[in-house]
Amino acid sequence: MARSAKQAKPRQSGLSIPSDVATSLLVLVLLFVAMQIIPTSSRRPWDFETYWYATSAASAGLSPYDTEALARLAQRPFGMPFIYAPVTVLLLMPLTMLPIASAALVWFWSKALLLAGLAVLWRRRFLPEANPALIAAVAIFGFNAAAVWDVATGNVAIVEQALLWTGFAAYAADRRRLFAVCVVAAALFKLFPILFLVLLLAPSKRSEPSWRLAGVSLAAFLLLVFGPVLAGVPWARGFLQNLPAERPWGEVNPSALGLIDTLSGSHTQPLFARPYTLLLAWAAYIAVVIAVSVPTLRNLWRRRDPVTWVFATAVLYALLVPRMMVYTYLLVLVPVLALVSPLARRVGGITLVGALLVAQALAKPWLGARYQGTWSAHLAFLMLLGFWLVYLAAGAATARPAPGATAR
């Protein structure tokens, strides 16, 4: 594990503007290619359309959480509600300055360029020795082509990841205030990323746990998310009443809870409904994952390495949150490459791990695999869990005394 952390630490050597440009261009080219060959269930950017009509409704004095109002604006049935916090309506408002078709095009290209910049950030700050072609391929095809799903649906995931990884880069440089700002901003849409504030409670070689900053940041987040509701803004109340009754499952939500829902066929059953079978199964899984991870987390605590803390926390977040949508797997591309590839250095290292991440997406169109089975639909989650267990096992082996050694 010491070798893994050493190789994962960000460095600036060997990087240049030409390599950054090459990485960006490869991302854009591969994104275009991938959108032609990677099948998704999206026939239109339905998430973006929800954002556009929701903000248009708010501009017209209507509730963005009222699907009937959205249906009247769209002049068609509207089955996908707007579920983000009221403050995000203001953030998305500039999109309504353009007709929806033009706004969708601007949204697409903005996110494509943001993804290219994100790939440059990954390579420059976290994987400086990686080949630009490998980084670009993993950014586009990694984990069931998460990036393709995002741009196809028009989701906000790439924006969220750009904020998070800007924050992670700040955290690695011990700029904790900037990290906190980025996490709060990233969490305004899907809320769960606010859990990354826990990184402020971990020490580094230059910083002690930042309890006060974590508390202030959490308070600011809660005020931004729930402030309009508490202030009595009439349409803001719909935020608390508009949570979907049906949890996403199958290929679009490859996660532990998604797999449990698929196996039980109970994705429409409330998680806290009696006899609490789903809740207990999910809680048991969480308990097991945390229990087997504790020795490694203790070792990371002693080493005070913020970069490896970022990687480990990102993977655990993805393994434990209830709603790990397919496009959110952008979060764990770099952590998997950084944590696992040093363990496979004898058989190809980062090239092998990157090829495994890419192969999952390419197998779908080339082999006709639609990932509609119970287990294949959650292949991204199962792969991530496998990578994490390999990393934990390698750490446990490193921590064991050598044969014949005596305890002191």
List its salient traits.
single chain, 17 helices, globular, disordered N terminus, disordered C terminus
Describe the secondary structure blueprint for this structure.
Layout: H1 2-8, H2 17-37, H3 46-59, H4 67-74, H5 86-92, H6 100-126, H7 132-153, H8 157-172, H9 176-190, H10 211-230, H11 238-241, H12 256-264, H13 277-303, H14 306-320, H15 333-340, H16 350-367, H17 379-399
Describe this structure in words.
By secondary structure, the chain is mostly helical. It has one domain (2-399). The protein is built from 17 helices and no strands. The chain has helices spanning 2-8, 17-37, 46-59, 67-74, 86-92, 100-126, 132-153, 157-172, 176-190, 211-230, 238-241, 256-264, 277-303, 306-320, 333-340, 350-367, 379-399. Helix 2 packs across helix 6 and helix 3 (46-59) packs across helix 4. The protein is globular, with a radius of gyration of 22 Å.
Low-pLDDT parts are: 1-14, 399-408
The number of helices is: 17
Nearest-integer average pLDDT = 85
Whole-angstrom Rg: 22 Å
Percent strand equals under 5%
Q: Name the helix and strand elements from N-terminus to C-terminus, one letter apiece.
A: HHHHHHHHHHHHHHHHH
Structural class: mainly alpha
Helix content: 55-70%
The tally of beta strands, per DSSP, is 0
Largest sheet: none
The CA-CA distance between the termini, in Å, is 22 Å
| Approximate shape | globular
- Please indicate the count of domains: 1
